[in-house]
Amino acid sequence: MSNIGNQKGAALAPDAEAPGAASPRGKAPHPLRAALGGGGNAAILKRVAIIGGALVIAIAVALLKSGSGLVVWQSVVTGLLMGGLYGLIAMGLTLIFGVLDIVNFAHGALLAVAMFIAFGVVQGTGLHPYLTLLVAVPALFLIGGVVHRGLLSGTGGGSLENQLLITLGLSLLLENGLLMFFGAEPKTVTLPGDFQFGLFGAVVTGARLYAFVGALLLGALLFWLLRRTRFGTAIRAVAANGPGAELVGINVRRIHTLTFAIGTACAGAAAVLAAPLITVTPTLGEQFNITAFVVVVLGGMGNVGGALVGGLLIGLVEQLTTIYMDGQSSLLGVFVVFVVVLFLRPQGLFGRRA
Amino acid sequence: MSARKLVAGLGACAVLLAGCGGSAPSGAAGAAAGRDHGPVKIGALHPVSGANAVDGQQMRRGAQLAVEAINAAGGIKSLGGRKVELAEGDTQGKAEVGQSEAQRLISEGAVGLVGTYQSAVSTNVAVVAERNRVPFVMDVTASDAIFAHGYRYAFRVQPGSEAISAAAAAYLKEVSEKAGKPVRKVAFLHEQTDFGSGAAEAFSKAAAKLGIQMGPNISYDAVTTSDLTAQITQVKASGANVLAVAGYYRDSLLAAKAINAVKPNLDAVWGVSNGAYDQPKFVTDAGALGERYFSTNYHYDAKNDQTTKLRADYQRRFGAPMRTGAVLAYDAVQVIAQAVDRAGGTDAEKVREAISASQVTPLAVGRGPIRFAANGDNRNALPVLMQIQGGQVKQVYPAEKAESQPNYSVTWRP
Question: Is A68 an interface residue toward B (CB < 8 Å)?
């Protein structure tokens, strides 16, 4: 997995990716393990196997409970499709957290801003909704950069409390700004030529599939950026050890701003992909904020790959909850899983120990 | 330094205490002073900002139109033509803000309050109204719980949640039998707070009495849900032939999209107090998806000429179609104004008596004039069945309120 800053885990403390409930204790650090991200492939594979096993059991029980294979299969398909989107939204959040140590409460509001940009462009120019990526992503990149430079990188954004207050305040400001300019009336973005098809009985709509594939592609792009480019190496270096990175000539403040901007740009991409699926309202950020934070913590703070897996997991759990517990919020199941994971592995499923 | 801090702290406490202690008497004095001369003030509490601002503004304008109509007709006649004035308050959709705004309007001399669109806000405002002995006539408030406390000053114009659900079940049985496709089993999809679960519970109770089988009962979280495909698949697998939906706008639209994707074997989609399926906006947003959806809800009376005239007037002045909430706000203001007229004064107790003996002809659908039961609920409130036909929301049942015949079917099945 692409643990940002796992050099810390690998180089500074070889056994930092230490065993939680799922990984074997006291294993000697292996050079390959250090190279691959401090966790060791075997341990991660084992963890993935355990999660997969738990999921299979959960699905089997759901089958027994509902008695209808179709319902469970549809839940699994819907859960995975939704989960991809959750993962995409959480990726930006986890990137910002992993590199800058900023818990960005404004992420949901930025998502809403991007959706309104997409909505506005579609309304104004009649462009295909997905082409608004070309507008929304750069716009969010710029907004992210400005927010970081203007509000968070100075001394005002130094302490954790200030960061919380600034990002929370920003989210209120953005939401109410949207409310002022666009009104509270819910808006819809329709995808021209949307289609649907059956997948072994389950229904999949085109827009959802596109969003899912888009999430995977963007996840891969982010992974490539972090792993295979000089810029990505610099980001990881800053995440692992800021002063150290500065000593070898990396402009840490610039990297911070760019990372924040990339994180918000991810929200922009997610917003465009999700816009045809949901109703666009100024307060839609709330809808995703809670889930996104759970996904980030579940996947391991700062772990981009973990965010994607966490997203898929939460998507599935959400859907299965509605089968398990009739008449309960899907968030109940999400938080049960969340608490259990935190209990067994406080650093998240794919996180390094703090 | 610390001594100075101590003094400052004590000073702050003193100011706070004085503020708290002083507010109640000044409010009471203000109430007495403000009522006797100048225009008769009616307080209107609506969520004019925040997520429900569109509806809040609609309702404030509806109340404003009622005031203008009363003044144009010569004001309050028994008080020598005293004019009526709307004292406006913004609840921001928050219960605590609604409470303080209610207090403010009362201390400014409001003889009665109308509001508030949201049950949670109305619950708090009702307490304030009760404490200050000022009548509170609710225009839109679905929750029935407020009327279980034995409040003397709480009244309501719209039919309550339970009344709508019971009517929805009864209409379903009658309409489906007339169409020759009697309802067999109803699946209920609802959002999980009081609003949706309450509707589902009341509907199930009424359905059981009518011999309609219920199940499955599926709930979801309206705030976080972004896909209902799995839930609709569950409906399809259950073999139910009617799907009842009680939700807010956004999630009901999602349900419509999911129904279109899954195409369950239904005879009808049946909105119960639904926040979307009788809204012209839903017709625009959902397009063909929403065609032939039914909805049982409170509604402006489309067969009443006066209502039509009022709505045309609204459309001309504000450039948007007048919603049912605004018509109910209009009715609620009329209730208070006519009560003041009959009471022949602004004494709150007399106004309350006059309201409880009201006989006001509503512009929303009703069985007859607005008359309040002992608990304050409108005895003649009538839920009406609507259906989207040819891209328009039409009243279809009961027959005396019908603009056209119900078409008991769905678009995706022959």
Answer: yes
